[in-house]
Structure formats: C-alpha cells, structure tokens
Amino acid sequence: MDIYQRIWDADMMGNGIRPITAKENRNLSEGFVVVDLESCGPEHSLFKEVHIPDHKRGSYQLVEKLFDNYALDQTRKERSNRSESREVQEFLLTAMETPPLRVAKEYMEKTSGVQIGDQEWYTYLHDRWFRQFNWDSGKDLSGFEHVFIGEQNRKRLVGHHFWYKYYLEDNPDLNKLHQDQIELDCLNLEIQKRTAPYVLTMGYHLKAFDYEKRRFIDISKKRCGFFVGMSAEGLLALGTVRAMLNEEAVEYFTLNGVKYQLELFMSPDNKCIRTFYTMSENLDS
Description:
By secondary structure, the chain is α+β, with helices and mostly antiparallel strands. It has one domain (3-280). It is built from 8 helices and 13 strands. The strands form 5 sheets. A 3-stranded mixed β-sheet has the order 1-2-3, with no helix packed on it. Strands 8-9-10 form a 3-stranded antiparallel β-sheet, with helices on one face. Strands 11-12-13 form a 3-stranded antiparallel β-sheet. β4 (133-135) and β5 (138-141) form a beta hairpin. GO terms for molecular function: hydrolase activity; lyase activity; metal ion binding; RNA binding; RNA endonuclease activity. Belongs to the ENDOU family.
C-alpha cells in the first residue's frame, strides 16, 4: 500500500474526521465532514456539517492554540514567548504518539535502516516544521505557519492549507472573532466534484485578523488545496514523509482511488519545509 494512503488510513483511525458527501451515512462515533459542492456562492459553506467527537476534539484544541502565535505579514519578525513555545512543545509531544506520525516514523526507519529515538524524532519534526528562517523579504518563516495558518504577502494569502483553519474562519459561531471571514470564489469548484470529498481545490477571499495591528486585513487566494478531514498530526505526517526525499519535483499519489499531485518546497538550506500541499492531478498549481 502507498505510504500516503497508509498515513491517511491511520489518521482516519485516529483523530482524522472522515469527509463524506451529503448522501452518505453519518457516523457519530468516528465523526464526519459533509462536503457540499451542489451549489455555490460567496456565502456558501463548503463544509456543510462537521461533527468532531469528544475523543478526537483534543487534537484540534491543541493546534488551535497555535493559530494566534504568528505575525500575519510575512515580512515582519516574530515575537515568540515561553508560553507559545510550551504550546508548540505540548502539540508536538502529543502528535508524536498518534497513529499517522507513528506510521511516518516506522516508514522512515525502514527506508533509512536507522532507528529514531524519541528525542531525535521530536527534534527532527520541530526542525522540519517550526524552525524559522528568512527568505527574500520574508522574516522568521516556518513551514507550520505557512501550511497550517497562512501568511499575508501584500494583498495575497499564501499557504493556508489546513481544512480545519478554513472551517473555523467560515463559521462565526465557532471562531473567537465571531466573524464569517471567508468569501468563496466559485470558479474552480465545478471541476472538483470528481476529487471530492477527500481533496478540494478552490479560491476565496479571507478577512484575516492581524493580532499585532488588532484589525482585519482583506487578502485572497486564487487556488488553494486541502486534504479534507485530516488532523493536524495527519498533515504533519504526510508532509514529513514527502520532505524526507528532499526533492522538490512533483510527486503523484493515489488516495482512495483518485490520483493527486503532492507539491513540496523547502527552505533555502533544505532543512525546513517552506510549503506542502496537494492538488488534483488535472489542475495546474
């Protein structure tokens, strides 16, 4: 079985939330994300129904703590503190024990022929995802911030590849800002129906909150790819395995019978993930 499919399956057995269409049965004990592509408009919610059972909720609460730890503008330096560092540590230590990251670790050990100790594994994951670097005008960049949270590049949104972050921003009753921050661009949704519900690619406008300036900033993205329903640790596992090869060529993989491409770009020194995301094979990225 393909390693990416194995990680997906492990995540669905762990804290992943299974994406389904509106016609499929809901499993309350496993959780579900209903993906709605039957209609579209600026106010349309792609994730029509989301149920996260209590035994999976802790994973989402841990990653959500990190969402306000970063400067929105990628040209500004970060001001981290001990509390934020502890939040990162708690998130990573918990994620390391989950099924998808165990699968990723076992795969890397088998491929390299080298056993990886717990402290070495923690450091490896931290360096790949949280170690900061500068690149051109970007200051204190990190793969985690880019992939999971998103950044402002002038009027553009860059990164922002975590479905749960999008879901919160699209639901004023769930995000702590109490704002519907998403306005959907329907241009690319029609051709996505064959790849749904597992992967979506679409454009949208985001009212991103700048925690330094204490105000909303209007930014947009023409095309963004999501693995729908993956937990944070599932996405970490996929990106970590993809980065193991340290090659920025497009990689293709099949998930639940549909072929996708998996993009990766590394930091200038090749030690950290810059961005990692999926697209349907038939779309240009």
